[in-house]
Amino acid sequence: MQATPNRNFILHPAVRIIALIAAAVVTGFWLWNTPAGLFGKADAVGYAFCHRIDTHSFHAGTQQLPFCARDTGMYNGAALGLITILAVGRKRYSGLPTRTVLVAFGLFVAYIAVDGVNSLANDIPQLPAQYIPNNWLRLTSGTGMGLVMIGMIYPIFAGTFWSVPIDRPIFRLKELGVLLAIMTVFVVLIVSNQPLVLQAFGLLSAAGVLAILIMIYSVIFMTFSNTFNRGESWHDAILPLTVGYTLAISQVFVIDMLRFSLTGTWGGFVF
User: Fold this and answer.
1) 217 with 248: CB under 8 angstroms?
2) Of 33, 138, 143, 229, whose CA is between 20 and 30 Å from 129?
């Protein structure tokens, strides 16, 4: 079937060049206006999405991680889930997880909701907390939610991008078991409090949130530009992923600047 004029325009090589230039410009502005160093940039990503309360966060020595404990678990869980999907050759799988896995996902969502509400109640004297929260519970609740996020988002991306997506569940019960084993190792490594390990996972959490945003914005771009189901290889993903990245880093940049203008500090909230 002949491509529509809209598709012909969007897929023109010049559009890809313009998208890459736009990505470079936005990245340059963001890099220039955020804290120095690789960890400083990761902090700036966390600053856009996380309260970064010091007592709710892990520390690599004296360095607070870019995200709080719960968000560290969430975005590392998503990143490790994505790495697993690609490593086992399921990049084209567009089916949602099986019903059994979805039930487990429901329990993960309930866990993070209960622990999050209880943690909030502990910080507000007027609210009754049911138990004393800690960063280990925040980490594990976030990790489960990270698996939920990637298990629901990646199949949508795969079904939108690939020309011939594979309609099979992205996760079955066996894969969920493997992922939970990986997440258990991740949690153990985090609570071991080794600075280099914590720094590595701090950087991975920043990459995780960007990966999620890029996939979401890429799907939006492919949908509105009528360029969905065109992917034969990852080379075909350059344009949608570049646009997705530009929109993602633009969102981070805007939130960073708004928050900094209101607080005057790159530090976390203080209660």
Assistant:
1) yes
2) 143
How far is Cα 231 from Cα 229, in angstroms, rounded to an integer?
Answer: 6
- List helix spans (H) across 11-68: 13-32, 38-49
CB 43 within 8 A of CB 60: no
Mean pLDDT value across the chain: 92
Beta bridge partners of 231: 162
Q: Where are the domains of the chain?
A: 29-263
β-strand 166-169 against 59-60: which pairing, if any? unpaired
CB 56 within 8 A of CB 134: no
Spatial separation of the C-alpha atoms in residues 215 and 170, rounded to whole Å: 16
Residue 124 pLDDT: 79
Label residues 216-240 b or e (16+ Cβ within 10 Å = b): bbbbebbeebebbebbeeeebbebb
- Render pLDDT for 155-192 as a digit per residue (tens, 0 to 9): 999 999 999 999 999 999 999 999 999 999 999 999 99
Phi/psi of residue 35, each to 5°? -55, 150
Residue 157, token pair as written in the block: 């991306």
Smallest Cα–Cα separation from 39: which of 196, 191, 259, 189?
A: 196
pLDDT: which is higher, 125 or 34: 34
Measured distance CA(52)–CA(67) in Å, rounded: 6
User: Structure pTM?
Assistant: 0.93
Strands (E), the chain: 59-60, 63-64, 93-95, 166-169
192-209: burial string, b at 16+ Cβ within 10 Å, e else? eeeeeebbebbbbbbbbb
Residue 17 C-beta-side C-alpha neighbours within 13 Å: 3
pLDDT at 8 over 80: no
